[in-house]
Amino acid sequence: MEVRNYETVFIVTPVLNEGQVQETVEKFTQVLKENSADILSTEAWGLRKLAYPIQKKTTGYYFCLEFTGSGNIVDVLELAYRRDERIIRFLTTVLDKHAVDYNRRRRNGEMNQQKAAKETEAVAQ
Amino acid sequence: MNKPVDTRKKYCRFKKNGIKYVDYKDPNFLLKFVNEQGRVLPRRLTGTSLKFQRKVTQAVAKARHLALMPYIADALK
């Protein structure tokens, strides 16, 4: 099957301690690795306030994984999410070529570089 | 008496700035396309082209699912 780029964001319940959160993330990266996925990046956004309460919780730990894989990898991953009560929300999306490029630039910190350059120029003058 | 006519032409900010991907992970950017109640603004107000309006609504929907943006709000801005 065709190899595709995916991105998955999930919210871990805020009642856990740091170690348990780390363990949860570890579990899902393991799920991906077992299904021969290549993990391109792991982003931890940290504890964030939710825009509306989910399961009576107003905060959550956000994590974002970007990976490439084929076959039924998303089914396996989402089944694992559903079976884990520590996950309160998740979203997996297929990335098109523009999204892949965007994510790469974001990772390398190329975003807003022109703006930053203009600002430093203004300061220099 | 006639009202003064606003001669500024509307434009699609995505086409003008060469933006090709609308990121659902950036709620601050998406806030430009919703009103104070959190509803998506129509194209006739923002000037966004149809191609990108579809992407914007998709991105807003994803951001709402992930609780990055509210479905309804009182005073968002």
Automatic annotation (TrEMBL), chain A:
Q: Name one GO molecular function term.
A: small ribosomal subunit rRNA binding
What is the protein name stated in its UniProt record? Small ribosomal subunit protein bS6
Record NCBIfam families: S6
Instruction: Kindly give the InterPro entries that the UniProt entry links to this protein.
Output: Ribosomal_bS6 (IPR000529), Ribosomal_bS6_sf (IPR035980), Ribosomal_S6_plastid/chlpt (IPR020814), Transl_elong_EF1B/ribsomal_bS6 (IPR014717)
Its biological purpose is as follows: Binds together with bS18 to 16S ribosomal RNA.
What are the record's GO terms for cellular component?
cytoplasm; ribonucleoprotein complex; ribosome
**Family that this chain belongs to:** Belongs to the bacterial ribosomal protein bS6 family.
Write out the GO biological process terms: translation
The protein's UniProt keywords, in alphabetical order, are: Ribonucleoprotein, Ribosomal protein, RNA-binding, rRNA-binding
Disordered: annotated span: 105-125
Residue stretches of biased makeup (Basic and acidic residues)? 116-125
Domain of life from the UniProt record: Bacteria
From TrEMBL, chain B:
Highest taxon of source? Bacteria
Q: Write out the entry's keywords from A to Z.
A: Ribonucleoprotein, Ribosomal protein, RNA-binding, rRNA-binding
One Gene Ontology biological process: translation
| Gene3D superfamilies the UniProt entry points to | Ribosomal protein S18
Q: Which GO terms describe its cellular component?
A: cytosolic small ribosomal subunit
Q: Name one GO molecular function term.
A: small ribosomal subunit rRNA binding
Q: Does the keyword Nuclease apply?
A: no
Matches recorded under Pfam families = Ribosomal_S18
Which purpose does this protein serve, as stated in its record?
Answer: Binds as a heterodimer with protein bS6 to the central domain of the 16S rRNA, where it helps stabilize the platform of the 30S subunit.
> What do we know about how this protein assembles, alone or with others?
Part of the 30S ribosomal subunit. Forms a tight heterodimer with protein bS6.
Family statement:
Belongs to the bacterial ribosomal protein bS18 family.
What is this protein identified as? Small ribosomal subunit protein bS18
What organism does this protein naturally occur in? Hymenobacter coccineus
